[in-house]
């Protein structure tokens, strides 16, 4: 705003302060300082810019400069500076309070959005304030690093700057939750989440990123977010190496884990006999895992386990003898591989 737009009410008492300072040479009293701070807070809350307010004070200083002979310019300027400093302090205090309120409102919205704890209609209205249109589908990506992150930390700020520089305003919301980075983007803009995954992986020094499937509506954001979290958990349990995982590519695992009792029975029945082996079941379970991960190519699997092909083949034969299932037989292979996946999901045999 221009200087002339600042109402006189925010300069109330200022001329008297200058006159008293000129007459007595004194500093401002505590009450006078408090009144300046209060006016600064009111001006900030009313939406006036600090530059315009400072300009108005300078103009008032020129207008009300005491005409008394012998008035000390240094004394008057010291009083003006003291009054303006207190005014700016109040202004900044109001600004900080407004920022804290905005941060609290944003955090409350994010918690409600990711946990689905608010009325969906009201949630959709609040979402528009942050650039999200919940009437369309959205997908959520979650990045986890070795450290826990807050929104004000360097890592999320760097990732956000990279996203804005690349895509501008595309209805993207980047935040943190429980120490993880969270990116919410329109469901038809997969390139945004792919770029986020790349930036987050680099910024977290090799952290892991999971991307949920696009889901419609406000409830869809919750669903996509939970898919991403479950994918991170699944990757840990299955000891997957990929830095970026998509829930859509791992749908078979939640399906297998849904009936826990059936999976437990399958693992115990098919892999239980491996516990009779010398050294326990773990080495042979590791052998099967490497074999299936290598596409059932024994030479590749042996190399990954730092074994000779002969030693690896001996292990496969031992598994066949103990379980009655031949890993090289396509019919037996499906049962064994499903049981191995179940073992990894259940943490068997430990």
UniProtKB/TrEMBL annotation:
Domain of life of the source: Bacteria
Domain PucR C-terminal helix-turn-helix span(s) in chain numbering: 284-340
Span of domain CdaR GGDEF-like: 116-233
Gene3D superfamilies hit by this protein: PucR C-terminal helix-turn-helix domain (1.10.10.2840)
InterPro entries, alphabetized: CdaR-like_regulators, CdaR_GGDEF, PucR_C-HTH_dom, PucR_C-HTH_sf
Transmembrane segments annotated in the record for this chain: none
Family of the protein in this entry: Belongs to the CdaR family.
Official protein name in the record: Helix-turn-helix domain-containing protein
Origin species: Streptomyces tricolor
Species lineage: Bacteria, Bacillati, Actinomycetota, Actinomycetes, Kitasatosporales
């Amino acid at each position: 705003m221009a200087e002339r737009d600042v109402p006189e009410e925010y300069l109330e008492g200022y001329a008297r302060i200058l006159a008293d300072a000129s007459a007595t040479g004194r500093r401002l009293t505590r009450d006078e300082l408090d009144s300046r701070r209060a006016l600064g807070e009111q001006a900030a809350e009313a939406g006036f810019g600090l530059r315009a307010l400072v300009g108005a004070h300078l103009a008032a200083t020129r207008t009300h400069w005491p005409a008394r002979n012998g008035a000390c310019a240094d004394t008057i300027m010291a009083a003006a500076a003291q009054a303006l400093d207190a005014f700016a302090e109040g202004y900044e205090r109001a600004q900080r309070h407004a920022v804290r309120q905005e941060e609290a409102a944003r955090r409350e919205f994010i918690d409600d959005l990711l946990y689905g704890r608010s009325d969906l209609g009201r949630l959709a209205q609040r979402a528009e304030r942050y650039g999200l249109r919940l009437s369309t589908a959205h997908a959520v990506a979650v990045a986890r690093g070795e450290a826990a992150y807050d929104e004000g930390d360097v890592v999320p700020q760097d990732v956000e700057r990279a996203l804005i520089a690349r895509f501008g305003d595309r209805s993207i919301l980047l935040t943190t939750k429980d120490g993880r980075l969270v990116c919410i983007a329109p469901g038809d803009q997969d390139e945004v989440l792919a770029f986020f995954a790349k930036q987050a992986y680099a910024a977290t020094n090799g952290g892991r990123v999971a991307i949920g499937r696009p889901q419609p509506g406000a409830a869809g954001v919750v669903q996509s977010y939970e898919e991403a979290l479950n994918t991170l958990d699944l990757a840990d349990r299955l000891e997957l190496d990929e830095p970026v995982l998509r829930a859509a590519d791992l749908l078979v695992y939640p399906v297998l884990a849904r009936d826990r009792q059936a999976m437990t029975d399958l693992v115990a029945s098919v892999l239980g006999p491996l516990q009779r082996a010398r050294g326990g079941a773990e080495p042979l379970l590791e052998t099967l895992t490497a074999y299936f991960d290598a596409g059932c190519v024994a030479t590749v699997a042996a190399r990954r386990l730092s074994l000779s092909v002969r030693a690896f083949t001996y292990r496969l034969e031992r598994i066949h003898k103990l379980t009655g299932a031949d890993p090289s037989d396509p019919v037996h292979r499906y049962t064994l591989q499903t049981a191995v996946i179940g073992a990894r999901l259940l943490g068997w045999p430990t």
